[in-house]
């Protein structure tokens, strides 16, 4: 089964939200759960990135590359990068896998690779 | 609404402090009481972010009001991330302006160094979006690093500009007894020399060690009072004339143009409008330079310089003491230190010192209008204050 990260599409006006919001940011409607769940696309281009050298205590790696990606449908997502020499504007492909482990849980999220 | 004045101020050193959080809050309160000559307050607000998580101390304001023997005055703890300090001042302003109280003590206090640096960074990172940012390992330095890269690409800001902010603020802190870092750094030492990459390693590329504020303990206090109370005490009339606050999306990736800090722009606009002044009227400002890039970006967003030209003004020395608009005369968060909950009150403390003419070697001549920008999260909750010296 292919894992996805999901966006929330307003049933009234079609606006996509990632992450989830209680009230639609476009039409302002607030009937709870008036959203359709749609998978975010996995292709996109890199908007900006950083390599982090001071990591939170859960991580066992020395550095962590993070970036913001503009996806094909115009939505944006923050994710981890597994790319040697990232460049602004480069095309990337995402895959959902484990991005953080703590004592109790493995957290899934999007990791991007060079397209 | 009634007008609100600053009756007294107090501060601790921003550094590593080896005494309990309650005392870090109480000592600047005591200094402010002495400064004002007042003995009692009607209400106490204590700004703090990490007491419950780092120090195992919840209900901080209740502990402080008793520690200072100010009971039965009302007391509340205010948590608004790194903007807690200015938020607490805003609460104090509203309490007096509304007619509910006459004298309000506002304290900001934090004791972060009780945690190890990894825990402290992780604690601040809990400000980020839990599902869409935090789980990826996103921290505040990571968001600032991504922001800096975009800013460099779009406006031509370079590592040299960032180093210039650090050098300026470290230089200002040399004349501030209460500053965390008394370390007169040079561009050569942190950027140009062969040792620079060792002296100044990357934290969140392109941000380096000297682009990032230290983790500090510290407390600061402002006593706010009505015009009536000010007549009874012999203190300069520094009026809290403008208060503005605005928010932005929680996730940085949701912002249409992530190089724009819309909450800063809006909070500053409100604050200036309420005070009846323009950005060009400001003589001295404390901006929230948790990362050097933020001083440049905020100086544009609040209206001191055009968007994309903050680094050019910095090059010309316009933000130094003696320049057109001196920024972060205290050393800023970069060198004075950043005890998160206390920072906003610490910024206001510096502005009051400057407007009173009590800032010593770092005094800005004839400062009449002062401004602070206290930046919470990564710009998702910003409080701006404008102070005016009367007569």
In whole angstroms, how far apart are the ends of chain B? 21 Å
Low-pLDDT windows of residues of chain A:
none
Counting structural domains of chain A, the number is 2
- Percent helix of chain B, as a range, is 25-40%
**What integer value in Å does the Rg of chain A equal?**
16 Å
Uncertain parts of chain B: none
Determine the number of helices of chain A (DSSP H or I, runs of at least 4 residues): 0
Query: Biggest interface and which pair forms it?
Result: A-B, 30 and 36 residues
Task: Describe what you observe in this structure.
The complex is a heterodimer of chains A (115) and B (391). Chain A is mainly β and 115 residues long. Chain A has two domains: 6-39; 43-114. Helix content of chain A is 0%, strand content 49%. Chain A contains no helices and eight strands. In chain A, strands 4-5-6-8-7 form a five-stranded mixed β-barrel. Chain A is globular and about 45 Å long. The two termini of chain A are 21 Å apart. The model of chain A has no long low-confidence stretch (mean pLDDT 92). Chain B has 391 residues and is of the alpha/beta class. Chain B has a domain at 5-116 and 215-230: Peroxisomal Thiolase, Chain A, domain 1 (3-Layer(aba) Sandwich). Chain B has helices at 21-36, 51-55, 60-67, 84-97, 117-125, 140-155, 159-174, 187-192, 196-199, 227-232, 262-275, 292-301, 310-315, 332-335, 343-356; strands at 5-11, 43-47, 74-78, 103-111, 202-204, 207-208, 217-225, 238-247, 284-287, 369-376, 381-389. In chain B, the strands form three sheets. Chain B has a five-stranded mixed beta sheet, sandwiched between helices. Chain B has a four-stranded mixed beta sheet with strand order 8-11-10-9, sandwiched between helices. In chain B, β10 and β11 (381-389) form a beta hairpin. In chain B, α4 packs across α15. Chain B is globular and about 60 Å long. The two termini of chain B are 21 Å apart. The interface between A and B is medium-sized, with 30 and 36 residues.
């Amino acid at each position: 089964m292919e894992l996805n990260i999901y966006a929330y599409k307003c049933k009234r006006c079609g606006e996509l939200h990632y992450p989830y919001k209680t009230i639609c940011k476009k039409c302002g409607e607030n009937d709870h759960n008036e959203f359709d769940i749609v998978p975010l696309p996995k292709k996109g281009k890199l908007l900006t990135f950083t390599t982090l050298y001071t990591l939170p205590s859960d991580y066992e790696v020395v550095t962590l590359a993070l970036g913001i990606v503009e996806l094909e449908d115009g939505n944006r997502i923050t994710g981890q990068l597994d790319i040697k020499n990232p460049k602004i504007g480069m095309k990337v492909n995402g895959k959902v896998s484990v991005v953080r482990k703590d004592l109790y849980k493995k957290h899934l999220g999007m990791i991007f690779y060079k397209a | 609404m009634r007008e609100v004045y600053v009756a007294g101020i107090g501060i601790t050193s921003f550094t590593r402090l080896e005494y309990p959080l309650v005392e870090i809050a109480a000592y600047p309160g005591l200094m402010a009481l002495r400064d004002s000559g007042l003995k009692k307050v009607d209400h106490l607000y204590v700004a703090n972010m990490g007491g419950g998580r780092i120090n195992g101390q919840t209900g901080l304001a209740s502990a402080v009001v008793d520690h200072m023997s100010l009971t039965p005055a009302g007391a509340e703890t205010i948590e608004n991330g790194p903007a807690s300090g200015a938020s607490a001042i805003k609460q104090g302003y509203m309490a007096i302006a509304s007619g509910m109280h006459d004298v309000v003590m506002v304290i900001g206090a934090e004791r972060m160094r009780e945690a190890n640096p990894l825990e402290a960074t992780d604690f601040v990172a809990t400000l980020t979006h839990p599902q869409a940012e935090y789980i990826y390992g996103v921290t505040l330095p990571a968001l600032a690093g991504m922001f800096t890269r975009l800013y460099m690409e779009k406006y031509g800001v370079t590592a040299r500009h960032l180093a210039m902010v650090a050098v300026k603020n470290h230089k200002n802190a040399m004349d501030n007894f209460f500053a965390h870092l008394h370390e007169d750094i040079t561009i050569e030492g942190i950027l140009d020399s062969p040792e620079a990459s060792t002296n100044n390693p990357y934290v969140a590329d392109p941000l380096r060690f000297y682009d990032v504020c230290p983790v500090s303990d510290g407390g600061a206090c402002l006593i706010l009072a009505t015009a009536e109370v000010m007549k009874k005490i012999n203190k300069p009339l520094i009026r809290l004339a403008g208060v503005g606050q605005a928010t932005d999306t929680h996730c940085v990736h949701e912002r249409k143009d992530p190089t724009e800090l819309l909450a800063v722009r809006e909070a500053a606009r409100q604050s200036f409008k309420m005070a009846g002044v323009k950005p060009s009227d400001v003589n001295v400002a404390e901006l929230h330079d948790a990362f050097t890039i933020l001083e440049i970006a905020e100086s544009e967003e609040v209206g001191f310089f055009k968007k994309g030209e903050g680094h050019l003004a910095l090059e010309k020395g316009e933000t130094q003491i003696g320049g057109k608009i001196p920024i972060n005369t205290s050393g800023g968060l970069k060198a004075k230190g950043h005890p998160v909950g206390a920072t906003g009150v610490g910024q206001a403390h510096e502005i009051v010192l400057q407007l009173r003419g009590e800032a010593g070697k770092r005094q800005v001549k004839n400062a009449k209008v002062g401004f602070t920008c206290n930046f919470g999260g990564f710009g998702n909750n910003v409080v701006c204050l404008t102070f005016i010296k009367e007569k």
